[in-house]
Amino acid sequence: MAIPLTDVKAQYGPLLGEVRRGIEEVLEAGQFILGPNVRAFEEEAAAFLGVSHSVGVANGTDALVLVLDALEIGPGDEVVCPSFTFYATAEAIARRGATPVFADIDAATLNLDPADVYERLTERTKAVLAVHLYGRPAPLAEFPDTVPVLEDAAQAFGATVGGDRAGAVGLVGTFSFYPTKNLFGLGDGGLVVTSDEQLAERVRLLRFHGSRDKERFDAIGYNSRLDELQAAVLRIFLPHVDEWNEGRRAAAARYSELGLGELCDLPRDEPGHVYHV
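RESULT FIELD:
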């Protein structure tokens, strides 16, 4: 018997009736792009995370690219990022024409080593892109405050960093709703969160071809919007994410008790971790 690494159906199974009703309501309304569910999910996600603004986008990789573009990071610039992460972290930097500068990771947490980050800073460094890998928050307070700290929190929706939600600590945070994530959609989706109003407005502009009204185009942007169907589903799943995260922590604790891998042998007194295992 094959046991799936991530059993998404087991998670949404108890909510399948709500999911079907939510999808049917979108179909009945006939509004599929930047509709009421997207606006509502953005508001609900911002409230959950404790930020002023959230912007739904097409996927987590686009979220990173949009943020880097909004910060005008491009050719000749450097962004410090972990040497151990998913490809999209460095890919997003390279897509902007900037240079990913790989810093070492801490052997215990697998997240960026702050001491090595300091060693990688140059006059061309425009940001530090920290990844909360496997839902374990990176030590954001230990990173330099001379450049913006960007949070790739794709695997850490609902995790906490010093009492704040992951994604809400640095200048800006990004999320992915790919089906293996702890808050997931039924396809691709992403989110950019920040309390910087100007940055949020710039991301909103860029996600829709550089336009606010589809008539005037103020920038060369992207076609990267969270769609209405995904937003409807995410609104149903969002209230359950804390419960799901607790289930992950319980599973990680059980793996540790059974001696099933060093990555699961994690400190028990850090309830903010999501444990994306």
